[in-house]
Structures are given as structure tokens and as C-alpha cells.
Amino acid sequence: MDADVPAAVGRELDLLLRERVAGAAVFDGDFAADVAAPVARFTLDGGGRMRSRFLWWAMRACGGAAPETPAALRTAAALELIQTCALVHDDVMDGSPRRRGGPSFHARLAARYPSAVSPATAAAPFASSAAVLAGDLALAWADDIVAGTDFGGDAVRNGVLENWRAMRTEMVAGQYLDLHGQATGSRSAARAIRTACLKTALYSVARPLALGAAVAGADPRTVLDLCAAGRYAGTAFQLRDDIEGVFGDPLLTGKPSGDDIRSGKPTYLVAVARARAGSRRDRAALSVLEGAFGNADLTEDRLLRVREVLTDTGALEAVEKRIGRLLAAGERRLAAAALEPAPARRLRALLAAVAAPTGPTAGPAPAVPPRSAAQAPPAGRPVPEAGATSEASAAQGFPATDDGVTPDEAVSAPSAGPGPCGAPVPARPVPSAAAEGPPVEAPVASAAAGPVHSAADAPETPTAAEPANPVAHPHPAARRVRPGGGPAARRPRGAAADRSSR
Predict the structure, then answer these.
(1) E-state strands within 432-482
(2) How far is the C-alpha of 380 from the C-alpha of 377, rounded, in Å?
(3) How is residue 223 annotated by DSSP?
(4) Residue 442 class from Cβ within 10 Å (0-12 exposed, 13-18 middle, 19+ buried)?
């Protein structure tokens, strides 16, 4: 399994989806041919199984071995179906015609039923509605797989289910914030980071890591360290995706370049560019951004001008640097976790690669050390959102920015409720960013905080206003990591609870 995790998950998916497509055919042949079978093909054929690999290597790094393998593979297969649901729904919401280098799910349905396309609007309500149902089916299958998995005990099952439930809600919340930002024309860099954390960081990296740790029965402290590392790397992953959505080669990214600009998606990259142009009173740059943002008919020439503005304002460089800081912070949190050395190295490589460019877009994100305490904003001083307007600048039509804490240096997004992947627990020594010197005590980010760059940025103690987090301790009966994976005589986990064959 270790030699080729994607292939192992693919085999598991093939077995599980064959059963489900056959079951769908019992209900109706058209439903099976138009919805169920394409959902299975889409899931089997696409992606690099990134979430599955995070889950697998977290499980292995937390001491999981042969007894945990069946449960890990089934849970990973369910994650791939969740990804299918997210992508199919996302393409419908964005009206994206392509995915993974080919037609999107709803575009394929529209081509299959051309008479269902309205000549007046060129819209395909049948295809879009059917694609929503296809995404729902993928979600239902994912839940069924997790529900039918034997995790070997109530404590481990409860840990998996708590993370599974939280992940689904976080994913929906992030997608809603994405839509809300487009509808309201949000200019907030802080809100863009919050959206990136909920929509991508937690669902794509942090929760898969937590699920793998939960399958292995890891202790709460280890789960929290893995989640923090995943949140940093996952946020960097989304920021990289934002860059490639404007600068990337469609042949490499699998999606049209500039779609985020045309759809008016309020990315962190654009929020930083707006704030920087505003602070410099650069009316020309602001005019380019305002004229392009949300313009569905944006030409390639005007998109080229947008790229120039994103570069000339320093926004591209600023986001690249933040990617580097986030990856460095994730590395430090991973180093703090109590993990098996060899699998931990695989996790480290995955986290480092997750935000790497897919092609020659803007170059690799530089590794930037976290800000020192001297560079941090004074205590009690709020971090302004990009797009906030001061009285003076509003009179001139420019969004305000804070020279002391520029939007690209903002530490965290506002609280979005229960914190990602756990509430604060007692601190453990975290290696500093410096190559030399002893580790420093870094408190864990609060439940309300987004990604932080250093111990100086994190709250020292939770405040009374912080909500209790239902996933703070995902394992009620946490047990220590087992170096060897448990007794050899133990019954393998993961077989379906209904005794169906795998």
C-alpha cells in the first residue's frame, strides 16, 4: 500500500462503486447510465488522490498498520466521492464548461441532451439540475461507505465521525462564503483568507490528516498538531490555486485561465492588489481591476492587463511570500507532532509539494521566516480588512489600508465559529524557524483564529468569548500511538459492517 497509495485507493473505489452502480441500475436504467455510472467514472478517473494520500500517511505516521488498512482505504474512498460532489457542484455554480482538461459534468450532460438547451439563453437547466443530483449522489455514497465501515471500536468510530461531520459542514460554509463574496463584491482580504481556510484548507488537507489520525486512534494533541499543519499548507494550496487561476496554463491546470476574474471571485490575490493600488492612489490600476472583475466578456488582452496590475502592485509577490510563510509554519507544526519518523517524512514532502506551481506561472513560493515579535502589530491593535474605507480616503474614492499592517501581512481572518480541527490545548515545544537555537514555546492558535505566522501572532490564552469546539478532543478514549500497529492477532478493521465483500 505504501508504494502506491493512489492505486490502492483506486482499487477500493472500483470495488465499492461497481456495487453502487449496479444497485442504481435496479432503480432505473437511465438514472444509472446518465448519473450513477458517470459519477463512478468521474471519481475513478480524476485527480491525484491528494486527500487520500494525506489520510493514508497521517494514519501511518500515527502508528497505523495492517489492522487499520481496510478502514483507512474505505475512508479514503469516501473522501474521493466527497471531492466529486464538491467539484460537480462547484462547476455548476461557476458555470465552468471544463474540468480536468475535459468537459465538466454538466457540460457532458448538456452535450448528451442538446434539445434540453434553451435556444434563447443557451442555458441548460436540465444538465445543471441533473449535475446537482449527481453531486448529491456522490455525497450520499460517501456517507454510506463511512457508515458501513468497521473502525474496530466506538472510540475510533466517534473520532472519525466527528471529523467527518465537521468537514462536510466546513466545506459547505466555505462554498457559501465564496458565493457570498461574489454576490456582494467583497474586497476583504481577511474574508478571502477565511473562505480559503473553510473551502479548501480544512477540507483538502487538515481534515484528511485528522481522519487518518483518527483511524489510527491518535491522541488529541497529535491530531491537533496535524490539523494545524494541514490548515497552514491547505491555505497555501488555495492561495496557489488563486494565482494559477489567473496566471496558470490551462493545459496544465485543467481549467480556463482568468475564470476567477470573469466570475468576480473575491480571491486574496485580488484583495491585496486592490488594497495596494488604493494605498498608492493608483487610479489606473484600480480602473483595470474594477473593469475586469466580474466581467464575463473579459478579453485576453484585458486579462493580460490584469496580470500586469497584479504583478506591478506587488500583490503577486506578496501572496507568493505568504505561501512561503504558511508552508514554513506548517512544517514547524508537523515537526512538533509525535509521529513515526518514516511516514512523517512522506507527510512532510506532501505538505511541501501541495502549494507548488503546476507550471511556470510565478515561480515557487519562497520560504519566508515568520515575522518577529518586533514586526507584529501592537497589542490590541486591530488588523484592518482590505477594502475598509477611512473617511479621508473614501472622499477620494480609494480604499484605505494600514501602512503598519498591510493587507498581505494580515495575521488571521475573523472568527467563523468553532475553530478548525480543535480548540487550544496545553502548548508543546515547537521548533523555531531559525536554523539554530532551542525550541520556543508556541501556544496553539485559538479556535477563533485563522492561520498565524509565529508564536507572537497567536493568542496566549483562550478568551471567554471563544466557543467550545465539538472536535477539540476527537477521541474520547484516546490511546497512545502504537509503533507496530497493534497486536498481530487483532481482527483487521474496515470490512463493511454489513459483511458485504470488498
Answers:
(1) 440-441
(2) 8
(3) H
(4) buried
The more confident residue out of 487 and 496 is: 496
What is the CB neighbour count within 10 angstroms for residue 291?
13
CA distance 315 to 197: 19
Pairing of β 440-441 and β 429-430: antiparallel
For helices 50-61 and 207-215, what crossing angle results, to 10°? 40
Give the predicted TM-score (pTM) of the model: 0.73
Beta pairing partners, 98: 103
Q: Is residue 379 exposed (0-12), middle (13-18) or buried (19+ Cβ within 10 Å)?
A: exposed
For residues 473 and 163, give the distance between their C-alpha atoms in angstroms, rounded to a whole number.
10
Instruction: Return the residue matching grid coordinates 463512478.
Output: 40
Alpha helix segments (H runs only) across 114-219: 125-147, 154-184, 189-196, 207-215
Helix (H/G/I), strand (E/B), else coil: 444: coil
Cβ pair 12, 74 in contact under 8 A: yes
pLDDT digits (tens, 9 = 90+) for 137-196: 999 999 999 999 999 999 999 999 999 999 999 999 999 998 998 888 888 889 999 999
Q: With CA atoms as reference, report the closest residue to 266 among 293, 236, 285.
A: 293
CB 291 within 8 A of CB 406: no
Which triple of cell numbers denotes residue 463? 478568551
Percent of the chain past pLDDT 70, that is, above it, reads 69
Least confident of 43-57, 198-212, 270-284, 416-430: 416-430
Rounded distance between C-alpha atoms, residue 78 and residue 24, angstroms: 18
Question: What's the alpha-carbon Rg for the chain, to the nearest Å?
Answer: 23
pLDDT digits (tens, 9 = 90+) for 199-242: 889 999 999 999 999 999 999 999 999 999 999 999 999 999 99
Q: Decide: residue 423, CB within 10 A, 0-12 exposed, 13-18 middle, 19+ buried.
A: buried
Q: What percent of the chain lies above the pLDDT cut of 90? A: 51
